[in-house]
Amino acid sequence: MPPAFHAAARALLSDPLTNKGTAFTEAERDRLGLHGLLPPHVGTLDSQIARRRRVLDGMADDFHRYAFLRELQDSNEVLFHALVQADLPRMLPLVYTPTVGAGCERFSEIWRKPRGLFLSHPNRDRIPDILADPALDRVKVIVVSDGERILGLGDQGAGGMGIPIGKLALYTACAGIHPAEVLPILLDVGTDNAGLRDDPLYVGWRNPRVRGEDYGGFVDSFVSAVTDRWPGVLLQWEDFAGHNAHDLLARYRDRLLSFNDDIQGTAATAVGTLLSAIHRTGASLIDQRIVLFGAGAAGSGVAELLVQALRAEGLDEAAARARIWAVDRDGLILSDMAKLTPPQMRLARHPAEVAGWMRDAEGGLGLLETVRAVRPTVLIGASGQAGSFTEAVVRTMAEGCARPVIFPLSNPVSRAEAHPADVLAWSDGRAIVGTGSPFGVPGVTQVNNVYIFPGVGLGALAAGATRVTDGMFMAAARALGAMGGAGETLLPAIENLRSVALRVAVVVAAAALADGVASAGDEELTEARIAALMWDAAYN
Ligand code: NAI
Q1: How far is CA 523 from the centre of its chain?
Q2: Domains annotated on the chain, with CATH
Q3: pLDDT tens for the 540 residues of the chain, in order
Q4: Which of 328, 362, 435 to mutate to test the pocket of ligand 1 (most atoms within 8 A of CB)?
Q5: Which of 496, 492, 474, 511 is nearest to 272 (CA)?
Q6: CA-to-CA distance for 388 and 14, rounded, in angstroms?
Q7: 524 C-alpha to center of ligand 1: Å?
Q8: 20 is catalytic
Q9: Rounded CA gap, 408 and 379, in Å?
Q10: Is pTM beyond 0.90 here?
């Protein structure tokens, strides 16, 4: 065999998009010069899945399973996705939350092969050259992070790359976006995590975070380079710290097809799940008294979508806002507080309202005091503060409400506002509970953004949308809320995520059309036409 031929065969095996491992047939081995490079056994996708499952079963913990799956993804994408797709309930927690948290924290240990792009501040003038790579010609969906607020784990610097990689694996697994069409990107602007900067093994840029105009200019040149290279691309912002998350969304949502999953995806997921819960209690949305704990990116996004949903029920803006109380690190958000973010200002209550309220020992109005005064029917946590839904908070809420809806959404498990089993015990089993991470408690719903973002992305792409509108997220939330789940759970089972994504995509595409941002016509946006766009992991 001439050496050049062997080099091509090796290239085929080392590219995860072309490698089939032992599943290359005899005929392919003849034609492509693969004999000798592969063991003699000719396998199938099914036998490969069975082999990988046996390896996963024998591993000591989920972090090692995560690392193993990452390596598999980098050596054979079809096999990786077929394995994930075949058992979503088991694989989702391994490739995404909660295990991806450890994957980010220990990213420097497990980085092996290039996947996606690291765009670092020192390379800021090279961004267009880096994006020019012809291997990236097919890109349609980008997930980008700067690693500053990874789940509830804070600043993980370059290790934040685990999040775009994980989210895009779910785009493929759930919405059938082809692996060659997705691109994870990490904007490495340094890290303020001194532990990482001092760690000799850290693979990121050892510099304090670039801030202010310099940061803005860097992100701007990134977005311009992206839109020059892929004009219709969908750009999803992920795990930016609260202030940047809001600023970047506001700056770019009217310039390209773009959304922030922490703000808008979480909002649609939480509101969809809440609509399903309310449906179960037989009450109506406008009769709810809603307390939000943690008014950052996720919490304020939920609040704004709730305001929209309440307005759609006939309330005016003021009446809609009057049904929501937001508690943040300094207690109930009041309009006379200093240092409120713009989204928090929109949620602030009038100080006169709290004049007669009972205060805590320091004279403050924390969650317990708010729950005591407001008697909420719904409590949503997006604070990243473990244990903040205390027994007293849950018992007080449950005293005033037959079926309290309680969603401790913070991720990962170690940051949840309460353990769902405790919430159930403290409410005598009456609470309707949803958590961000999976806890394995029967009857508890996992309020995971994976119910929304893959379908939003697929719907936006199918519609040839130029923008992601609020109406598209509201449509996604309503569709999710109408799906329901089995038994006590509020959402469909994880194994049905592909049909969930398709259903969401159909309504999102229709909303894009209704909002005048679609380029495709009505006839292209039927369920069958959108389903036909979804890639299934199989060798061809
Ligand atoms: P963020 O950092 O923007 O917001 C956190 C907010 O909590 C901030 O406003 C902060 O001031 C507030 N906070 C901090 N300490 C507090 C305290 N002691 N009491 C009250 N509030 C306090 O972060 P983001 O993006 O909003 O995420 C928050 C949490 O929500 C994270 O743990 C994240 O994993 C989780 N999350 C869950 C999702 C889901 O379940 N589907 C989706 C997105 C986020």
Answers
A1: 30
A2: 93-256 (3.40.50.10380), 264-445 (3.40.50.720), 451-531 (no CATH)
A3: 555 568 899 999 999 999 999 999 999 999 999 999 999 999 999 999 999 999 999 999 999 999 999 999 999 999 999 999 999 999 999 999 889 999 999 999 999 999 999 999 999 999 999 999 999 999 999 999 999 999 888 999 999 999 999 999 999 999 999 999 999 999 999 999 999 999 999 999 999 999 999 999 999 999 999 999 999 999 999 999 988 999 999 999 999 999 999 999 999 999 999 999 999 988 999 999 999 999 998 999 999 999 999 999 999 999 999 999 999 999 999 999 999 999 999 999 999 999 999 999 999 999 999 999 999 999 999 999 999 999 999 999 999 899 999 999 998 888 999 999 999 999 999 999 999 988 989 999 999 999 999 999 999 999 999 999 999 999 999 999 999 888 888 999 999 999 999 999 999 999 999 999 999 988 889 999 999 999 999 998
A4: 328
A5: 474
A6: 48
A7: 39
A8: no
A9: 8
A10: yes
Mutate to test the pocket of ligand 1, among 104, 151, 383, 389 (most ligand atoms within 8 A of CB): 383
| Active-site choice (66, 140, 167, 252) | 167
Tell me, in angstroms, the distance from the centre of ligand 1 to residue 416's CA.
10
Atom 42 of ligand 1: nearest residue by CA position? 266
Q: Please list, in sequence order, all residues whose beta carbon lies within 8 angstroms of the beta carbon of residue 129, skipping any fewer than 6 positions away.
A: none
Cα separation, 431 vs 32, whole angstroms: 60
66 flagged as catalytic: no
Return the closest-CA partner of residue 450 out of 130, 71, 83, 100.
Answer: 100
